[in-house]
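To whoever is on call:

I kicked off a structure prediction for a single chain this morning and the downstream step that reads the tokens threw a length-mismatch warning. I double-checked the sequence; it's 302 residues and nothing unusual in it as far as I can see. Pasting both halves so you can look.
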Amino acid sequence: MDKLVKLNQQFGIKEQLKFVQDSGDHIMIDIDNVHARARISLYGGQVLSYQPQGEAEDLLFLSDIAYFQEGKAIRGGIPICWPWFGDDPSGLGRPAHGFARNQNWTVLETKSLADDTTLVILSLKDSTDSLAVWPYKFELVIEVSVGNTLGLNLISKNLGNEAFSITQSLHTYLQVADIEQVAVKALDDISYVDKTDQFKYKTQTGDVVVSAEIDRIYQSHPEQLILVDESLNRQIVINSKGNKTAVIWNPWIDLAASMADLHDDAYQHFICVEAANAAEDIVTIPAGGQYSLQSEYSVSRG
């Protein structure tokens, strides 16, 4: 039986959730409920779109020249960086940000909840390929809830007989109208690692604003951050749990111009605000244990 047909028969939800194929090989989950519309890619277990009903703009940014090919990460939405964040910590040349975002995930469950929120649960398990680059048995589960908020719960399960350590991120691309007209609030007086300046430790003063390349790992932060977008007259509220660190990134002009899957001017229209366990925030999971990283996004006006 055709895979798409089988998925729709087993996991489709009438008038709310269906599986479709994009112009490439990736299978997508399209959700349209009373609260919002959303798209999730089985490749990467990656949320690509979330647009509350009545809102003119998507909460998430997706490059219109993103790659949709096996072995290539999708530029935009919420990539899952796991089991390491950033460059290969071992220096062995393994892919930046791990391998979870470049694998096909399995559907475990779809459900319409009592308030018509749609729940999607996907899984990624160790394989011959993963064990060749990271020798641990695991199951990684992403729970995505699409309602009047967008919720993600990334659960790392250690299925082996020894502890392992991870860093990770929900590498969220938030859509903005003009990068120079946005501010991230609630990080005043927080220490951060400045990856654009030889990984120096610095302290934030006031709101985070962007007028050049920015790549920072904030060492501690409140559970709630707020992105204020003056041009779109909206705020995106970000709540997270399970992380001590938060990452803020925008490539600005020169780096954006070097990215084949991003238009030269696209840096003006997104900022990454990421719930992360990065830098010194390393998570060790004992044999048989698990760890949860959660993030929730909502839009408000005024």
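Update from on-call: the warning came from a stale cache, not from the record. Cleared it. Sanity check on the structure: Helices lie at 3-11, 128-133, 252-257.
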